[in-house]
Amino acid sequence: MIVYLQLAACKGKTLLIIADAADTVARIKALAYHTLAAEDVHAEAFRVYYKGKSLPEFLTLEDCGLSNTRDHVVELVPVQSLAQAPLQSLSFADNEHAAKLLQQEMHWFSRRARLLHAYRILLFFCIFTSLASLVSFLWYIPMISVLVAGIELVNVPQFSDLGGFTVQMLQSSIAHMDRAKYFNFLWAIAIAAMIALLGLDFGDDCDIVCEEDTYLTLGTYGLLALLFLGTSIVSWWSSFNFRRRAGDLLEPYLLSITNINSRYFAPPGTSRRTPLPTIDELSSRDTLAFVQRIHAFLNESASNCLLLCQLQSVIRLLEVAGGTGQASELAILCLERMLRYLSTHPTLLEHGVVERIQSHLASNPIQAEQPGLTCLVHLCATDQACQHVLKAGTLESLRDIAKGLLPKSNNSLATITSALMRANHYEATSEDVEDCVFLVRCVLQSAPNGDCYNALACLNDLLELHLDEINDATLGRLIISWQALVETSDVEVAILAAQACASFCHHEHGLQVMMQYQMLDSMVSLLRPFLSVDEGMLVAQPFYACVRRLDMEGGLDLDEGAQASLTALRSMIAERLEVADLEGEDMDVMDTSS
């Protein structure tokens, strides 16, 4: 089912959660806390209300009347005050603050519990020391103190305010604790009887216990041992039950934003399940309708606060709906919408998400053709997201997907290449650079002018950093691609292509490759049309100066044709400068006449 969480304190904000009826209310609140933290929204303590009634955190959604057969709308109502005053000063200032805050709360709770138990041990030690001193049985003090302290240690606090809500001991745990109290009462009676019997034995001035009293003494001790054993078992059972139930409630709060969906405690009595198993159940009934509801919410609520923790849910739904045509397409569109938001919050991107997205796009290239490319664009929209791609070891997979989709669509491919290049500025290998250059060449040959412009801008940076790592044959093919761009109608793209060539030729290795492929004439012809504009002169002058300097230093072996091309380029530059000087003189004359 889909649960819509409406925030009473933040009008216009709605959280979308894909949930199961077996999920606890505490897990829903944990997801909401993390999402508000990611949105930089100050998350006041709140309680969950459904149809005007507050929902206890330890109950499941099914117990609260929410079923999987329909969607539900619940409201998050802020609590005016927290029971723990020191926690009120903490605010959700950064993306990781939610997990840090709750870990601090848990640490504070554990420390308080340990101090409480220490005080109880000291108290019972003092009480039994006083009683033992009265009856002169000092040798029983250590044993009695340890036994009582062990029994009292299971009396953990009945509740603790964590994050503004109350974790209560469940009724089944309370029942076990009541049984432990009965055993404690019987144990106290047994101890009193043992003391009385031993007192009677020593009251007869018997230095050695008589034979007929030995069995009675041993029996008393045996009864004490059995009672203590029973108390220990029941107390342990109660403590384990409370810890397991409390773990269901506290576990989501102790998880970070990166793995909150990958770990999940199942309800008591069942084994730990895979993340969000209800996707399979829902898809088996009506996958298309389920995806349509999610897609409609994402489209109609673009300004709402999307629950990014549920990104794994959409991906899983996408995988399940892989063979259902329209459902698969809608699922990818949902994924694209959420990735678009992730591109502005790259710290929330998980390695597992990257791998699953790429795996699905690689296995379903036909269905994921257009929206798949869009997903890749948003996946690589920021440097930090690209670093996640690199750390996940999936860069090669991403390039393969881009290459596979290349013949069908070039839209936004330059943006993907741009992101890959930015991510590889400091860690790129020669293979990475070759693959990136291959993508750029594909964009230059067939993509729209806007993509060419982006690709050339990225290529300029790449050549400045990794020119030595590019194969000479690849460089020669790049020059041919640049030369083809001169004929384009987009002046900005053509000038940028010339600038890329000039940057390429500023490097001695680049000039040697140009000489090897006899491309100097092509470079001069490429620069010729742009000498009439200032941008062209900014490119041509440094290029000519660089070539001339290397030639005079003996770094180049120019033949007659290359020398003629350089002479022609020098003449064109000089002519352009003379024209500029003449225009300046004409302006001066006009100013004087006026």
Describe it:
Keywords: Membrane, Transmembrane, Transmembrane helix. 64% of the residues lie in helices and 6% in strands. α8 runs parallel beside α10, α14 packs parallel to α16 and α16 runs antiparallel to α17. The N and C termini lie far apart (81 Å). The chain is mainly alpha-helical. Among the domains are: 80 residues, Phosphatidylinositol 3-kinase Catalytic Subunit, Chain A, domain 1 (Ubiquitin-like (UB roll)); 136 residues; 96 residues. It is elongated and about 125 Å long. It is built from 21 helices and seven strands. The strands form two sheets. A five-stranded mixed sheet has the order 2-1-5-3-4, with helices on one face. Strands 6-7 form a two-stranded antiparallel sheet.
